[in-house]
Amino acid sequence: HAPNRQAGLSEMLCVVGRLLLRKVLTCYQSSLEEEQNQQLLLRLVLSHFQAQTLERQVQHNMESLLEEDSVPAKSGASKRKLKKDRRNKRAEACSDEAHDETQVAWDEEHELTLLTQMGWSHCMGSSAC
Question: Could you tell me what percentage of the chain is helix, strand and coil, using 3-state DSSP and rounding each to the nearest 5?
Fold first, then answer.
């Protein structure tokens, strides 16, 4: 009976080993997928903030053009001069905005709101396998 029992135990150990290995690989794959999801989420949030910045820039440019159109053109001002003034004003606004962007604080509440809207819930630590 001893050889049969030993063969049975050996086979059972192999089965348990395969199950444990499968569990470890599944956990590892889950953690990799979670990390990829976090990276994608970070890209999505950054893209959202970049889009907001571009929208503000477009709004500012549109207001600037409307303001120029509302000011009556002086008879002595040439189109070239107006264009040059507009370009200088836009460059100045861009440098001011770039300076402002370096000092923008990260709004965690806004970030959490965005994440909640995208279907993500707030959790601590990594998910259990």
Answer: 80, 0, 20
